[in-house]
Design brief:
globular; 2 domains; 15% strand
């Protein structure tokens, strides 16, 4: 029996990543891998063949305040010690974005796993403005600047390319219970009690949908290069729905064209989670822009609700499972949204195509979280941690 220890914390994004591990703990044991979890550094943490460290957890635990880890600093000193005690030391990069990394740890670890990575690893040798490939795009095209520039950049040396590999994305996490008050407490103090729960309420695209378009997302981001594209798509959506006279919910702006519906009136104010999901299930198109990273919970809320997912294209990256297939499971948008109007018109006027794409996305997601999908996850997990 091989022993795997995880060093983690109760950060929501980390618990998303751990969810399929919690869920498949027994199955992994049957496959010869015993999994344990530690929130504090102790001697037992090192009693294993594989030690998997979530980056944010270690940074918080050691109270590291530098953007780039130094050889004399707490993070690398810890990694040096850990490497002597375990057979395989794995750094799990828990940052949201493809581009945000800590490659200065490469000499001191055996494997670097990340939820999504660039298709072209050479891009990790470029310093993107704002730390993200898409923030760099908005800076260059629209001259957007951050008040405080992002300085966390350390290039990936070619000799370490093989150490960088894909983990799995948050689609396998229980993202649908994010704002459930009971589950917030459970995730915070008793994460193992929610380990076997996938609460999924699938709705087919043909479910009576009277809302043409929905975009309900925060515009309050501290960094200009992050919030700019959300403000841009918000502005463009409002212009399009007014021009085309579409029934829509864009932020708190509701256009219903005399459609007498109580829930649309409620959408002008703050919604409960139940109300929010009801609107999504009644929407033909759901817009899900980038946030701090490319992939967000709204992507999967849209898929499960049966709404057709529109989001900025992700042609630059690889992730697993492969939920995002352009024009097969989602509608990719140019990052300047110059094609948004055309895409909205086309898919609202082509019911069969929209239905097929929505159904493809739902089937792919349903399979990923099924018993078969969990078997695939376990095989993927074991394969990835055993990469040389």
């Amino acid at each position: 029996m091989k022993k795997i220890n995880f060093f983690y914390s109760e950060d929501q994004i980390i618990l998303y990543s751990l969810f399929p591990i919690f869920k498949n703990k027994k199955k992994l044991k049957d496959l010869g891998y015993e999994v344990s979890f530690y929130k504090k550094i102790c001697l037992k943490l090192f009693e294993c063949q594989y030690l998997i460290i979530f980056s944010k957890s270690l940074i918080h635990q050691l109270k590291n305040e530098t953007t780039i880890f130094t050889e004399e600093g707490k993070i690398i000193s810890f990694l040096k010690t850990a490497k002597k005690r375990v057979n395989k030391l794995i750094w799990f990069d828990s940052s949201d974005s493809t581009s945000v990394t800590h490659f200065e740890v490469m000499p001191y670890i055996d494997l670097y796993l990340k939820k999504q990575i660039f298709k072209n690893k050479n891009l990790y040798q470029r310093n993107f403005y704002g730390g993200r490939i898409f923030s760099d795009f908005y800076h260059k095209k629209f001259k957007v600047k951050d008040e405080i520039e992002f300085k966390q950049f350390y290039p990936l040396k070619k000799k370490y390319f093989k150490k960088l590999n894909i983990a799995w994305n948050i689609g396998l996490g229980n993202v649908f219970e994010t704002f459930n008050k009971t589950n917030i407490v459970l995730r915070r103090f008793f994460p193992f009690l929610v380990k076997d729960i996938y609460k999924l309420d699938y709705h087919p695209f043909e479910n009576k949908r009277f809302i043409d378009l929905m975009f309900r997302g925060s515009l309050s981001y501290s960094r200009n290069t992050i919030k700019f594209h959300r403000e841009l798509i918000y502005k463009n959506c409002n212009e399009i729905v007014r021009k085309e006279k579409l029934v829509s919910v864009v932020g708190s702006n509701v256009i219903n064209h005399k459609l007498n519906n109580e829930i649309l009136e409620k959408a002008k104010k703050r919604l409960s989670i139940k109300e929010y999901m009801y609107i999504m299930r009644k929407s033909k198109i759901s817009i899900s822009p980038f946030g701090w990273g490319e992939i967000g919970a709204r992507d999967f809320e849209s898929i499960v609700s049966g709404s057709l997912l529109f989001k900025p294209h992700m042609n630059h990256m690889l992730t697993w499972p492969k939920f995002f297939v352009p024009f097969k499971t989602y509608i990719p948008l140019k990052w300047d949204f110059s094609d948004l109007d055309r895409r909205i018109k086309y898919y609202l006027n082509n019911y069969k195509i929209s239905k097929k794409i929505s159904m493809n996305a739902q089937n792919k997601f349903r399979k990923s979280v099924s018993k078969e999908g969990m078997n695939e996850f376990c095989n993927h997990f074991i394969k990835q941690i055993n990469l040389d």
